[in-house]
Amino acid sequence: MSQAPSPLLSLRQWRVSFAGHEVVHGIDLDLAAGERLALVGESGSGKTVTALGVLRLLGAAQLTGTCWFNGEDLMQASEARMQQLRGQDIAMVFQEPMTALNPLFTIGDQLSEVLLLKMALSRRDAWERSAEMLSQTGLNPPERFLKSYPHQLSGGQRQRAMIAMALACRPKLLLADEPTTALDVSMRGQILDLLDTLQRETGTAVLMITHDLNLVQRFADRVAVMEQGHVVEHGPVQQVLQQPQHPYTRKLVDSRPQRHLKPVPDAAPVVAQASKLQVSYPTRLPGWRGWFKAGAFVAVDQVDFSIRQGETLGILGESGSGKSTLALALLGLLPFQGQLQVMGQGWQHHHQADLPLRRVVQVVFQDPFSSLSPRMTVEDVVGEGLRVHQPQLSAQERQNLVKRVLAEVGMRESEFPGLLQRYPHEFSGGQRQRIAVARALVLQPQLLVLDEPTSALDVSIQKQLLQLLQTLQAERGLSYLLITHDMDVIQAMAHQVMVMKDGQVVEAGETQAVLAQPRHTYTQTLVQASTPGMGRS
């Protein structure tokens, strides 16, 4: 009787500690060649440090237990050997591409460097292979992106470039830490198809760290659920997610956003409206024409919309479709053509003239860690707008307002001792996003622009934040412009939806009607791609 093949990756009694504090508690995991294992759990559960420990990228962390890869004990491997394995046999896609990519080099330089060092290709072959990989991940035309720097790309485009870099050497094992967080649903499908192809050709195994349970259902063979450094449940995906045994797994499965929206009266006043809105960016024309004339890239093309008091307008679309550009125009941060008014007023693009309007419309960004100043206390972060817009307030009055709005978003000093004097890095991602919401609310705005406010959050924290936003809307009559690529968030939050592609609106209407019976082929693709289990080969 033949023996079963050894797993490609095997962790036994795997423990990770920092300064004597253990954060991963003796877990066991096996991953076979060509297999897909999803590691799910909330922030702080130990998912990412488990993966980084395999590559020994945790610096001063203490690693104990055994880690076998392809028959080799990585705990005994030299640093020189680990350097050989990293990127070639074991590759990793990091969650935040902006911090993982080098800002001083173009995407082409960084991608071809991997092929030059690991695959010993010629410079020309490395460049051609780099273009091929970018094209496979949806970055077309690849020549444009090869010559671009990371800051010149959108978040989704940077993530695709990083995925191309990780897959360039066709590794045996891919460690993917939230690889599709910044991608729209159609691009997620394209990336999963690319991974499918890679696996069929090379037998690459994938350890995917994610909080997207729809993605787990669609992609993974098995799932392991981590809570506070322990694997509390594991098994085949359908078994674990459809019949969860552990209370924590049931909590994750039940964390899908719920729709609790008040209907908007027909007579509700219009808070913001646009007609034939167009936003263009100057570009340089190729060849000699660029000496005499500048070109233009139209990012938002002839868009019409209106948002009433108490209403949420959701915007769906892939990376680069113009969603964020539209939001920046609404915030008065970009010049535009056409008509755009907020509370019946237009932007003058002059600081003093626009100051009253800036109090009316506020924004909550995607990543609270980068949008909140690390050098300011919570009191300073939330109260900064009051100093600008209500300078007549005394220090005590300002502090009272800050305390009141923090309590409104669920951040109370009784639960967080010394809350006002603490810094953003001392809070979890969900708590930081609540602070960001408080910063926007303290000025009592009429309209909030929500730019992917939950994409970086765990499913349970995401549900809590969406419930908070729904409650605030009902109590304050707030209007939201919600940018997201998460169909569950749109279904839970949006009264109206607008689907954008290549700067144009391809479909718009009442959310449930549009998503139930999409007319445009692009909307149909988005809806189909967001359905759990769809597209799995």
Fold and architecture overview:
Helices cover 38% and strands 25% of the residues. It is α/β, with parallel strands linked by helices and 537 residues long. Strand 9 and strand 10 (230-236) form a beta hairpin. The two termini are 31 Å apart.
Helix-strand blueprint:
Layout: E1 9-18, E2 21-31, E3 36-40, H1 47-54, E4 62-69, E5 72-73, H2 79-85, E6 90-93, H3 97-100, H4 107-118, H5 123-136, H6 142-146, H7 155-167, E7 173-177, H8 185-202, E8 205-209, H9 213-219, E9 222-227, E10 230-236, H10 237-242, H11 247-253, E11 270-284, E12 294-308, E13 312-317, H12 323-330, E14 337-342, H13 351-360, E15 361-364, H14 368-371, H15 378-389, H16 395-408, H17 429-441, E16 447-451, H18 459-476, E17 479-483, H19 487-493, E18 496-501, E19 504-510, H20 511-516, H21 521-529
The best one-word shape is: globular
- When the domains are counted, the total is 2
Provide mean pLDDT, rounded: 87
The largest β sheet comes out as: 6 strands, mixed
User: SS-based structural class?
Assistant: alpha/beta
The strand count comes to 19
The end-to-end span amounts to 31 Å
Oligomer: single chain
- Helicity level: 25-40%
- What would CATH call the homologous superfamily of the largest domain? P-loop containing nucleotide triphosphate hydrolases
Radius of gyration computed on alpha carbons: 24 Å
Question: How much of the sequence is in beta strands?
Answer: 15-25%
Count of separate DSSP helical elements: 21
Classify the fold: give the CATH topology of the largest domain. Answer: Rossmann fold
CATH class of the largest domain: Alpha Beta
Strand order of the largest sheet: 6-7-8-3-9-10
Low-confidence parts lasting 5 or more residues at pLDDT below 50?
Answer: none
Which architecture of the largest domain per CATH?
A: 3-Layer(aba) Sandwich
